[in-house]
């Protein structure tokens, strides 16, 4: 499981946007978003760079956690 610190997420829409962006690249990916902690956990076939790029495309700042 890969973990990322994501800043700028504040609501359910943010959770859906991040989840959908990652699952658009890997439909089978498991995405868990902890809104309060600003943490995103991803289990799937994508590498860290692909996940971070997908999150950045949605307008959030992201770094490995």
Automatic annotation (TrEMBL):
Highest rank taxon of the organism: Bacteria
Keyword Metal-binding: yes
Secretion signal span: none
Keyword terms of this UniProt record: Metal-binding
Keyword Metal-binding: yes
One Pfam match: HMA
Matches recorded under InterPro entries: Heavy-metal-associated_CS (IPR017969), HMA_dom (IPR006121), HMA_dom_sf (IPR036163)
Stretches assigned to the HMA domain: 1-63
Protein name: Heavy-metal-associated domain-containing protein
């Amino acid at each position: 499981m890969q973990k990322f610190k994501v800043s700028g997420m504040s609501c359910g829409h943010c959770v859906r946007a991040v989840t959908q962006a990652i699952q658009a690249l890997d439909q089978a990916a498991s995405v868990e978003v902890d809104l309060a902690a600003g943490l995103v956990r991803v289990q799937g076939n994508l590498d860290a760079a692909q996940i971070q790029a997908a999150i950045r495309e949605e307008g959030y700042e992201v770094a490995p956690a």
